[in-house]
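# step 3/5: fold
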Amino acid sequence: MRVFLNELALAEAWTSVPSACRILAEILNARHQQSMLRDALYCTQRMSSVLISSGKSLSHAAQELPRDMRIQLFSWISKHGPFVEDDRQFISDDLFYFENDDVTELGIGEAARRIQAKNNVATLSPIGNLTSRFGSDGLDVVHGLREAPIARIRVPNYTDIARLVEILIALSPAPKNWADLLEICRGRFDLLHIGPNCDKTIAHFPYIPAAGRRIIRLLGILQQIMSEMDNAGRLSQTGLELHSKYFTGEKACFSDESESRKSQPKKFTFPAPDGGDNFVCFWHGKITTATIAIRIYFDWPVDPDKKRIRIVYIGRHI
C-alpha cells in the first residue's frame, strides 16, 4: 500500500516550532525505524513550498527547527523521497479538490487518482488538534469541478502514524519459511546486520510461525534501540528507557550469559557478518515455544564506529 503525506494537514498543524517539532519527530522517527514506512510514504517535490498558517513556506519555517531535525526533514523532502512526481498516476480530467483547496498536485490528489485506478492507497495527515478538518478516517475528494463533479472519492486517512505502521506490517506478506523470514527482516531492519551464519543455524529445524513472529518482534526492538544511538554510541533518553525495559530484570527479553557459561567462550564464538575475524557474543534474545528454545546472539554493546548491530546467530539454545 502506498501512503501519501497530506501536506495541507502538516501546514495546518505547524502553528509554532514546538508543535512542528512534536509532529515531525513522530514522522521522522517512524521513517527512520521502519523501512517499510520509508518505502511506502510518498511526498510531493513541491512540499517545501506549501504555506503554513503564518504565510511562510514550509521550507522557510523549517529553518527554525533543531539542526538534526532540519537535516532529516530536508534529506527526505528534497533529496530522497520517494516522490509523487517520480511515478505519478495518469488520469483524464486531472482536477481534484478537497473542500475549497485544489489538491491536484498534492498528496491527497495523487491518492484520489490512484483510488480511481483501483489502487490500495491512503493518506497520512499529521494533525495538531482534534478539530482539524483532516482528523477523520476518510477524506472526501471531488474529481473535476466542484460545481459539476465527475466523481466523489473517499480517501482512507490515517492520523496516527503508529497505527499506520501496524497496518503496513499486517499487509506485508507472511513468511512461509525461515528464508522468507530472514529476507523480510533484512529488508525491514536496516540498522541490523543479520549475518549469513543465521541462515545456516536457523535452518536446522522446521519453520515455526509463532517463533518467526517473536524473532521479528525482538529484532524490531534492537532496530528501535539502535535508532536512538548517536555516533559516539550514546543512547538518547528514549533509548535508555528502551534499554531499561528490555535489557534489565529477570524476565528481560535480552540478557547476558551467566559467568559460568562465559567460562566457555568457544561455544559463543561466531562468524562476523561482514566476513572479518570470528568473535565472541554473550548477549542474546530469548524465544521459547512448546517444542524448542531459540536464541538470537548479537554484538553488544555496539562499538561507536559501527552503524549496525551485528546479528551473528539465530537458532537452537546453545
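# step 4/5: annotate
The mean pLDDT is 91.
# step 5/5: archive (pending)
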